[in-house]
Design goal:
Largest sheet: 2 strands, antiparallel
Strand content: 15-25%
Strand order of the largest sheet: 1-2
Number of helices: 2
Structural class: alpha+beta
Length: 64
């Protein structure tokens, strides 16, 4: 990647960052991330219960 974005030693093809705070539900959040092709996603931890599991978890919508 000649024009790669490098952050903390890791190379990214996309410079697009997507936030998760503006979508109606987790399914819409995942669809937007996939459609945008974003490799970096921001999550407001203050508003997120990281202990939550199942389909209502942000961790299900945002891949590691």
């Amino acid at each position: 990647m000649e024009d790669a974005f490098i952050l903390a030693g890791k190379s990214y093809a996309s410079r697009l960052l997507v936030g998760t705070g503006k979508y109606a539900n987790l399914q819409q959040t995942r669809a937007v991330i996939d459609a945008a092709g974003a490799e970096i996603v921001t999550v407001a931890l203050r508003r997120t219960d990281l202990a939550a599991t199942g389909e209502d978890s942000i961790q299900q919508a945002v891949p590691p």
